[in-house]
Amino acid sequence: MGLRDSFKKGSLEMLVLALLKSGDKYGYEISHLIGERGSNVLAVPEGSLYPTFYRLENEKYISSYKKLVGERRTRVYYHLEPSGEQRLDLLVKEYQIVSQSIQKILTGLVEE
Hints:
Low-confidence stretches: 1-5
Shape: elongated
Number of helices: 4
Mean pLDDT: 88
Order of helices and strands: HEHHEEH
């Protein structure tokens, strides 16, 4: 896996965990919020989120449950577990370190 793919994968994991911190959500809702809050620059199709959901669930960072909506429709909601909150804290710290380092490099280029 290339650096870009690894960064994207880690970023998506961080975004999903961050959105779940404010409460349980279902897949489409998370996809919509990423697009909306990311000014559609970070738009992620709902289907692209499921590998992330499955991995986070396998690692016990999130759990899921089904909820009946209407008469026949069932939605799968995702819930942030305490270990997921710890993982989110770590990912945010790592992101901030990388982001600050990139900014220092870019600032140095602008000043030259």
